[in-house]
Amino acid sequence: MSRNKSLPFLLTSVLQVCIAIAMTIGASAAAPNVILLMSDDQGWGDIGFNGNEDIITPNLDAMAADGVRFDRFYAAAPLCSPTRGSCLTGRFPFRFGILAAHTSGLRVAEITIAEMLKKKGYATGFFGKWHIGWVKPEERGTRGHYSPPSHHGFDEVFATTSAVPTWDPTVTPEGWKSNSNKPGQPWKGGFPYMHNGVEATENLDGDDSRVIMDRVIPFIEERVAAGPDERFFATVWFHTPHEPVVAGEKYKRLYADRGNSRQNYYGAITAMDEQVGRLRSKLRELKIENDTLVFFCSDNGPSDGLAKKGVASAGPFKGHKHQMYEGGILVPACAEWPTRIKAGSTTNVRCSTIDYFPTIANAVGFSFSDSQSRPIDGIDLMPVIQGASAQRDKDMFFGFRRLHDGTDGQAVIRGDFKLLREAKREGRTRLYDLKKDPYETNDIGESMPELFQSMSSRLEELDASCQQSRDGADYSY
């Protein structure tokens, strides 16, 4: 072939390569599907990828191995409801006024990830434990109010207001002690799940994590069937391993050499892990795993009672749920997105549930309009995950408040330093260097008075800023 005749062939080949590269870049840069998985009261040490050799969690371990493991990931509060609101808004719980469990509902003026993604054409679904507002309009209680997922951007909803038994979620389990729920009787009326505004009455037996995933999978399949350019956002908040924590016999047999409490606790976590595996397999079957960003975390540290019994674990960290120590707010977490997150990644940078919103916002190219602009307390996690950022450039603020019984715990983390005010009545304020003392054994407040004062001032600044937000500074009326 002559040189002149070969030139068009070469140009055509180069053009084809360039088009292929452009398509690859375009595909990897496209806005992803997003799935937020969250367990309930699962301690930092209650999972294989954090070193637990007793609890069987192969699917979550594989997710962490195939993506990134967060070694220092924080729930925004040491209990459920405040953290849940932080996941969806990117804001400290004290900003939106949910200071403890059942104390309020998520305000409609808050902008959630679901509302953000709906503007981008996403289908949105919520599945599992809501706990930031009642899901039934006729519910009555001494605390909280009706504020279901459908008021906050979710189209498909399969939700309970709060906790249910992790096995047979409509029936109060044997051994449960309560004035309102007797063993064998219906759990909170017998139909705790609402499915798109109607009480769910079918397919509610057995493992509750499976019950939830049975609704998640069809939602994803339907969206994929709608076309290759369709995108979805699924929030999947399991009840496991919150009490009443019960496992089926199949899962209890895996821990036959353990006592009854561990059989139920470990078994329920393994059953949940099985459903995470089912989800990951479905993404691969549908060939959308490369286009899907999946996060997993717990909502706070392990249950007080189960931690004190040695059943649940915060690993080597001090404290548990309802406490401002690391054991109350440091949780297991990982994420995967094969085209953007390198397998086997780990990070010690302090990350948090408040970081979901800005991370997803940047991934899909969202920005607030001037009229909706408000403080967002989180950071974009992708530079951290990809190694471009080695430290957090924003402080983290935590709180748990029930003033009527003297509960007013708060903490601020700046870099490696943490100022902590204990949640109990008249609790002490302590200062820790988390780099040198991750297990919070040495209060350095007296030896570093200037830092103690600086951190105390910063805590007060953040508390005051949050007070302004929840008094209406961020909303237009």
Automatic annotation (TrEMBL):
Keywords on record: Hydrolase, Signal
EC number annotated for this UniProt entry: 3.1.6.6
Domain (Sulfatase N-terminal) ranges: 32-365
Domain of life: Bacteria
UniProt cross-references to InterPro entries, sorted A to Z: Alkaline_phosphatase_core_sf, Sulfatase, Sulfatase_N
A GO molecular-function descriptor: arylsulfatase activity
First and last residue of the signal peptide: 1-29
UniProt family annotation: Belongs to the sulfatase family.
The protein's name in its UniProt record: Choline-sulfatase
Protein's gene: betC_24
